[in-house]
Each structure stands twice: as structure tokens, then as C-alpha cells.
Amino acid sequence: MKNNNILKTINWVLFTTIVLVGVVSAVITLYDLNADNTEQARTVFRWGFLHTIISVTILLISTFLALGWKRLFPFNIPIAIIIVGFCYVLFFLTFTIGWVGFLGIFGFFIAFVTGVILIVSYAVFYFLESHKTNKI
User: What is the pTM (predicted TM-score) of this model?
Assistant: First the structure.
């Protein structure tokens, strides 16, 4: 039970940190784009087929996560982190044009790698725990 509380704490601290960093970086980026009137990167609304694919992916993964939230513990928050990464890239691809869109892709990459690292480390942890209890 103590391990579950530690895993919950790790999950929620990482999730909160990633969401806060994402929101702050998005606000700062949009503020800077609106303050600077260059043509290389700007804010504009656009929607295309890629945006629809990302939205459907977010919807499907979110539905899967909502249906199995408690059963997926401790993997639920790493999956939620990956979903937040998808939302981040969708935000940047929808509201910006130019090189700044790579910031959204970079943020998605960070969220995806963080989620995968957490999933792999939790899987190894549970694998080692199951072997430890079987040997005793």
C-alpha cells in the first residue's frame, strides 16, 4: 500500500508539472507572437485533416483511459501525460503558423518520452515485485 501512495505522488507531481510547463510555454509563446509582427511565425486559426486525426486520436485514447482509469493504475497518469502531449501539439498546430509549430511537436515529444519512461519503469517495478513475491 505504501508503494501505491508513492506511485500516486510521482504520477500526480509529474502530471501537474508537465501541464503547468505546457500552459506557461504556450502563453509565453502566444504573447511573444502577438507582440512581434513578423511573417515567419504568427498566430492564426487553421483546421485541416491532420488536426482531425489528432483530435480523433485524443478522443479515442481519452475514452479508453476513462473506461479503465482505476484498472490501469499506475499506468493511467502516464497515458494521461501522453494525451496532454497530443493536446499540446494540436494547440500549436491549430493556432500558429511557421517555425513555432515545432514547439508543439517538441512538447509532444517530451510528454511522450516521459509517459513511455514511466510506463516502462512501472512495468519493470511490477515485474520485479511479482518475482520477489514468488520466490519467498
Answer: 0.86
